[in-house]
Design brief:
The complex is a heterodimer of chains A (111) and B (112).
Chain A: E1 4-7, E2 10-14, E3 19-25, E4 29-37, E5 44-50, E6 55-58, E7 61-66, E8 71-76, E9 85-93, E10 99-101, E11 105-110
Parallel strand pairs in A: 2-11
Antiparallel strand pairs in A: 1-3, 3-8, 4-5, 4-9, 6-7, 7-8, 9-10, 9-11
Chain B: E1 5-7, E2 10-13, E3 19-24, E4 31-38, E5 42-50, E6 53-57, E7 64-68, E8 74-78, E9 87-94, E10 102-103, E11 107-111
């Protein structure tokens, strides 16, 4: 099974609201990354957080990492209709040589 | 634009046929990854190459094979195609192996 599991599988909110997505993983990691995928398009990298970091910001995005709970969250503040997409977490494990993607959270932002 | 190119964009073929998907990584990236994305299976990692050599293998069927050439472009060969092989196939590249992956626009394969 995938290393990362996103929760919820689907999320629907109104424009202007905040969206929170969670990612849980099973083994120790080097980094955790979040990607966005618009329907039918390639994934786009959003943010990378290293295992020794607890929080990172990029514009309206805030990512937290709790290595003791093996979980991460992605917060999108003041959401816009253009944020409608699927969001994936990807974990980089020690010695694995590649990132492992979860199944994604589908976010719908209604105007 | 990620800098990763994939050709063709769309491919329609029949069961039993063989197709080749091509990927050119970002300039300077040594690692290439192939993924399959279908509605019921999600994003599935197939295989990774680093500087011409296979580095990691995922859920890649025996009917599928890939290679990375000296100029670092990669090809994914799909043979004896089945209806269930219809999917989006993505290529991604990265500098080495555990940093950001840059995804191409994908090849949409339809097997009839």
């Amino acid at each position: 099974s995938q290393q990362g599991e996103e929760d919820p599988q689907a999320l629907s909110i109104q424009e202007g609201e905040n969206a929170t997505m969670n990612c849980s993983y099973k083994t120790s990691i080097n980094n955790l990354q979040w990607y966005r995928q618009n329907s039918g398009r390639g994934l786009v990298h959003l943010i990378l957080i290293r295992s020794n970091e607890r929080e990172k910001h990029s514009g309206r995005l805030r990512v937290t990492l709790d290595t003791s709970k093996k979980s991460s969250s992605l917060l999108i503040t003041a959401s816009r209709a253009a944020d409608t997409a699927s969001y994936f977490c990807a974990t980089d494990r020690f010695g694995a040589g590649k990132s492992t993607f979860g199944d994604g959270t589908t976010l719908t932002v209604k105007p | 634009d990620s800098g990763v190119t994939q050709t063709p964009k769309h491919l329609i073929t029949a069961t039993g046929q063989r197709v080749t998907l091509r990927c050119s990584p970002r300039s300077g990236d040594l690692s290439v990854y192939w993924y399959q994305q279908s509605l019921d299976q999600g994003l599935q990692f197939l295989i990774q190459y680093y500087n011409g050599e296979e580095r990691a293998k995922g859920n890649i069927l025996e009917r599928f094979s890939a290679q990375q050439f000296p100029d670092l472009h990669s090809e994914l060969n799909l043979s004896s195609l089945e209806l269930g092989d219809s999917a989006l196939y993505f290529c991604a590249s990265s500098t080495s192996g555990q940093e950001t992956q840059y995804f191409g626009p994908g090849t949409r394969l339809l097997v009839l």
